[in-house]
Specification:
The structure holds two protein chains of two kinds. Chain A is α/β, with parallel strands linked by helices. Chain A is built from eleven helices and ten strands. The chains are: A alpha/beta, B alpha/beta. Chains A and B meet through helix 2, helix 3 and helix 7 of A and helix 1 and helix 2 of B.
């Protein structure tokens, strides 16, 4: 299957409502024809985090007009698209329902196939849209909801090498910011303060560093930050800057250790890949110190470090459309209109549950 | 006008095709499913279309229940209705479950839906069927006072809660009624927007941040 394909993508799994029209030409090259992302940052900032019900309410009010806008920007009508791709998990169920039902309705009304896309697969395949990357490669996803190192062998062929056993990295940034009275989202706020701080003043734990397995843990770090802050309470502006800088340094060292091991493992597994690649995705990828750490690590290990533009690292619909295009081009069957949204949906079907359990299974 | 009516606001999940010129239901499908509206709705839309012997291009308008009711259920129906309207290029209108429960009953009427958590969604209708108050939420105690002062029938699942001896009713709306009401609503004024009546139940973060010097 190598003909030109165009897909409408829909993303509503967290606090961004997004729609995009993406084209994949006969050679497999992708082009974003039109896209729009509506962030709900304002709606959630007073709560210090994403409130699921507020998010779901915002998605249902905005999505249809965003789809119209994305089509307009692309200069396309629904008649011009070959399929609809909507995120169906993992994520906040209220939002997933809105996006998936809208996708189902459009698919039914236009008679086009529906692809129910795994949000993580969207992140995993983005580098093929932006950089035309070939399989296999490694992806580090670091966001408010996920912290995963995944081997990307092919479309629908993923092996999770590491994941967080407690908090996601973005969550650790948010909680640190909240504790220090910094605004939400925590990532940019902590980074801003860290620039003015002394990263050597506090020694924060680097959980699991030195262990062979590639998993992450950030909840102990959060506790250490709180204890350090409490021990010098009341804190000055400089104290806060020092805590932020020390926190960021600890995270940076953790990533260096974990990802370094991951790169070695990849090299051992694929000795014939001359210039392998590490792709970073997720909002935490915006952090300059972490980026610099990963860049240096990749340089040292002779890996390409690929950081797609930030707008494609954070949640967006272009990556969902692209994942749909990849599935379609690879000959995967579309989904039935009875497909259910899934709050939990691991990318790697074989991966053991490290986070979240019970009847709904592993979180991601 | 051919109207596709959709209701997912309660435990039921249903769809119907309605011909307003003849005031008849051409086909309907649905079940009391409790949960899983997102998975089943399209099947019932297809079932209603098949029973009517029609396909989506024959439809002139979509009418969807917007609540009050299950937040999740409402969003399943509203998202689907808006998606269909966008793709078909036809208007969609929102029908409140309170007005659907009031339709065809003798006024003056008080419609009250059990909102759980000791609260009630309610609205009063005049003898001619017009809205006497706006849809609102009240505590059961407040609603009892409203019911006491009300001279007329009470409808809806909270009726037995508000007036002793009142018949026990469900919140299931008649899908044909939803279609009929939807036929007469102005699409400019009655957009398919959820009618929650209750806030999102989120509290601004408490100040447990560290003390500043």
């Amino acid at each position: 299957m190598s003909s030109q394909l165009t897909i409408l993508g829909i993303e509503t799994s967290c606090d961004e409502t997004a729609a995009a029209v993406v084209l994949r030409d006969a050679s497999g090259k992708g082009e974003i024809l039109g896209e729009v992302v509506l962030s709900q940052l304002e709606e959630h900032s007073a709560y210090g985090g994403v409130v699921p019900e507020i998010a779901a309410r915002a998605h249902v009010e905005a999505l249809d007009s965003l789809i119209s806008e994305a089509l307009l920007r692309a200069g396309k009508s629904l008649a011009d698209v070959d399929a609809i791709a909507a995120t169906s998990g993992p994520g906040l169920i209220g939002g997933l329902i809105v996006g998936l039902m809208t996708g189902k309705a459009i698919a039914r009304a236009t008679g086009k196939p529906l692809y129910a896309v795994n949000h993580l697969e969207g992140h995993a395949l983005t580098a093929r849209l932006t950089d035309g990357l070939s399989f296999p490669y490694l992806m580090l996803l670091v966001s408010g909801g996920h912290t995963q190192l995944v081997l990307i062998r092919g479309v629908d062929d993923y092996e999770r090498w590491g994941t967080t056993i407690d908090d996601a990295l973005g969550e650790a940034f948010d909680k640190t910011a909240k504790l220090l009275g910094l605004p939400y989202p925590g990532g940019p706020a902590v980074e801003r303060m860290a620039k003015k701080g002394n990263p050597e003043r506090f020694t924060f734990p680097r959980p699991l560093v030195g262990e062979a397995r590639l998993d992450f843990s950030f909840s102990g770090l959060k506790t250490a930050v709180r204890q350090a802050a409490q021990s010098i309470e009341p804190v000055t502006e400089q104290d806060i800057a020092d805590i932020c800088a020390s926190f960021q340094r600890a995270v940076s060292r953790t990533l260096k250790d974990r990802i370094g091991r991951g790169l070695e493992r990849f090299r051992a597994l694929y000795p014939d890949v001359a210039m392998p690649a590490l792709v970073v995705a997720g909002g935490v990828a915006a952090n300059a110190e972490l980026r610099a750490t990963l860049q240096a690590l990749c340089d040292k290990n002779r890996f390409h470090f690929i950081a797609p533009p930030l707008a494609l690292c954070t949640d967006n619909a272009a990556m969902i459309a692209w994942a749909g295009l990849e599935r379609m081009a690879a000959g995967f069957a579309p989904d039935d209109l009875a497909v259910a949204p899934r709050s939990r949906w691991p990318l790697d079907k074989q991966a053991a549950t490290l986070l979240g359990s019970g009847k709904r299974g592993a979180k991601a | 006008m051919i109207v596709l009516a959709i209701d997912t606001a309660g435990t039921g999940c249903s769809a119907a095709l309605y011909d307003s010129n003849r005031d008849i239901v051409l086909g309907a499908a649905g079940e009391d499913i409790g949960r899983g509206h997102a998975e089943r709705l399209m099947e019932f839309v297809d079932g209603a279309l098949a029973a009517a012997g029609l396909d989506l291009p024959a439809i002139d308008r979509i009418a969807v229940t917007i609540g009050p009711g299950s937040f999740t259920g409402i969003r399943v129906g509203v998202a689907a209705a808006r998606g269909l309207a966008l793709a078909l290029g036809i208007p969609a209108v929102g029908v409140s479950t309170l007005s659907a429960l009031a339709a065809g009953r003798n006024g003056p009427l008080l419609v009250a839906i059990d909102a759980k958590r000791d609260e009630v969604y309610w609205q009063a209708f005049a003898a001619d069927g017009s809205e006497a108050t706006s849809p609102a939420i009240a505590t059961v105690e407040e609603a009892r006072a409203i019911a006491q002062a009300h001279d007329g029938d009470i409808a809806g699942s909270a009726s037995a809660l508000l007036r002793e001896g009142a018949a026990v009713e469900t919140d299931g709306v008649d899908i044909a009624t939803v279609a009929r009401i939807g036929t007469h609503l102005d699409p400019q004024k009655h957009l398919p927007k959820p009618l929650y009546l209750r806030g999102p139940d989120a509290k601004p973060q408490a100040g447990f941040a560290i003390r500043r010097a």
